[in-house]
Amino acid sequence: MKSFTYRKEYLDKLQSYKDKDLIKVVSGLRRSGKSTLLELFRNEIIKSGIKKEQIQFINFELPENYLNKSWDELYFGIKEKLIPGLANYVFLDEVQNIPQFEKLVDGLFATENVDVYITGSNAFLLSSELATLLSGRYIEISILPFSFSEYLTARKIDIENKYLNFEALFFDYINETSLPKGVALRDGGYDKIYEYLEAIYQSIIEKDISQRYEIREIRAFNNIIKFVASNIGSILSPSNIASTLKQEGHNIHHSTIEKYLRYLEACFVFYKVNRFDLKGKKQLVTQEKYYLVDPGLLNILVGKERMTDRGHILENVVYLELIRRGNKVWTGTARNTEIDFVCKTPLGEIEYYQIAWQLAAESTIEREFSALEKMKDNYPKYILSIDSFTQNRSGIKHLNVFKWLLGI
């Protein structure tokens, strides 16, 4: 029997939408754990008393399940196996491999007593055509690779052990990978993880993006990805990316760069964070920051020696954790101030975060605290760093980032 890391937050979300009149769409990066999540959920509903006969789970990554099969053939095949008078649960994994799959999904959704769950690449699943067809009838659950906490759980590390070296474990986390299968490969050595990441990266670039969007300038496309990966956490715009690449001999129009960045977001490779005008209280539409879905992919894109940029990598990990916890996130900007993250929590409250690797120098302490002190409101303000000994000031809480990530 397979051993899975229990992913409580996502399972709780699926459970809350179970039997609701909505299509459940689980989206996310290739190999981020979408299929495993559905398997875990299937096991949960069986434990709750649902009979196995009431569940149909079809993996469309297996050629025998989709080759030479039309959507209507699959539709009638699934309908034949439905148990009349009982709730039926249909799981369609990587459904985009079926031509006109949206008709299959729509037909099953319209069928009485059928609860539909689908997974796949976001670029396929929620393209504008499908979003229009299913408008108001689906809920998207966007899945990320392992959090730091899930990573340690997958490695069977007891976080209650007070002698743990969290910094060393964190470097493992960011230098290897947060992708579930990659973590399972770590016993075979780093080379195995690197090969795995390389294969995933090629699949995303070739299958999910280049083929679908008919990108012919693959070299230029790769250069843009590498440039953005080298500048995570920095303010970027298509125009400044274009001018920087031009200095390096790559002539790419900013509108092409803008288009490529949209494709990368659609496939969950990068996450875009808009700026928020702290004075005018409005979102700005230029000069965003980008963060990478898995810091381990930096090994493929930038190279392994990244100690000099560890502050931005920590920022990347904190950003992913904030969205994992259901926050809406912006980067805050005013005339003389920049706040790393301005968050709107699931309860609608505002929180501010500054991220620093270490508050060792007096100048660093002053910079991080003074940025938050300029915010003359009563919203919670936090500084996250790796320091074991923390210091609060002016109502600003300084927290150890490892404990914050682990919720301890």
TrEMBL record:
InterPro entries xrefs: AAA_14, DUF4143, P-loop_NTPase
Stretches assigned to the DUF4143 domain: 206-355
Occurrences of domain AAA (ranges): 23-152
Keywords per UniProt: ATP-binding, Nucleotide-binding
Ranges that cross the membrane: none
GO molecular function, one term: ATP binding
Pfam families per UniProt: AAA_14, DUF4143
Record carries keyword Nucleotide-binding: yes
Presence of the UniProt keyword Acetylation in the record: no
PANTHER family named in the record: ATPASE
Protein name: ATP-binding protein
Organism: Aquirufa novilacunae
